[in-house]
Write a structure and sequence with these properties.
Elements lengths: L6 H21 L4 E9 L7 H12 L3 E12 L3 H5 L9 E3 L17 E4 L10 H12 L3 E5 L10 H7 L14 E4 L5 E4 L12 E7 L13 E7 L12 E8 L7 E10 L2 E6 L5 H4 L2 H16 L23
Parallel strand pairs: 1-2, 1-4, 2-3, 4-5, 5-12
Antiparallel strand pairs: 6-7, 8-9, 8-10, 10-11, 11-12
Amino acid sequence: MKYRLLPALLVLATAIGGCSQTTVSNNNQETLKVLIIDGQNNHTIWPKSTIMMKTYLEQTNLFSVDIYRTKNLWRSNKYINEFPLNDGKTYTDLPQPKTDETFAPNFSQYDVVVSNFGWKAAPWPETTKASFEQYMKSGGGLVLVHAADNSFPKWDEFNKMIGLGGWGGRNESNGPYVYYDNDGNLIRDNKKGHGGAHGPKHEFKITTRAPQHPIMEGLPAKWLHTTDELYAYLRGPAENLTVLATAHDQKNKFRHEPMLMTIEYHKGRVFHSTLGHDQAAYESVGFITTFLRGTEWAATGKVTQDVPNVFPTETTTKVIKFD
């Protein structure tokens, strides 16, 4: 099945991927192989969000993308029929998440894995967890989008990979809260409390905290993100964590919450984005750009994509409708 994009997305693809396509040609760089995993997510945008991310990635000509879906679906909706995998497999729509004992992607075939799992996703089989841990320890790449940091709260190695997470019973036993204060200090707060919160969706300003990092290089110091959930009070091991960008939590005027992060896990690289609640958020040029650059960095440790000239400003959001 082919998905039609509006001309504006093609303009963005040219802005983001045009020079990258040249880079690939000039350096004889092979296409980066991406695996998107999904199947259990509490957000109604999936699996359309999987298709949106796949489309964005492939538009750059840097990436080729496969999808691997658990057979036991949870919280599926109209988009399941609109965006099927057409792979001949039988899928079961369950009233609650359940482990798929056949879920066993061959992670070693891919440069980077993108997780579109979410809250309450059932644990993976133990052999699959071990396989993924080995993949990451050996230098694999991982990208987490929004509710993917809600998943698997009892999986210690996963918590180390994601740095910070929320919900699922996460609390002080999982690690500190991490945020910036109003004076620009990075705070690690070990006080007791649950992990994960957000208020109503709204537009919010994002502040770049690591302007020299390859993912953030060339992005504005501040930029306005479209309507989305602003994740707050995330906590976790936060080992080898770099906060790339933050946003101000309206419920607590003294906290600037991590929105974009990287984590070094053994030899592996992780890009963690808390953005992406629904279609409006996925259509944000800020989301698309950081997602693409973050995926390339997780796969290779560098970024060859330019920041598009249609990137949001401090006072204006930019969106590109996905048809």
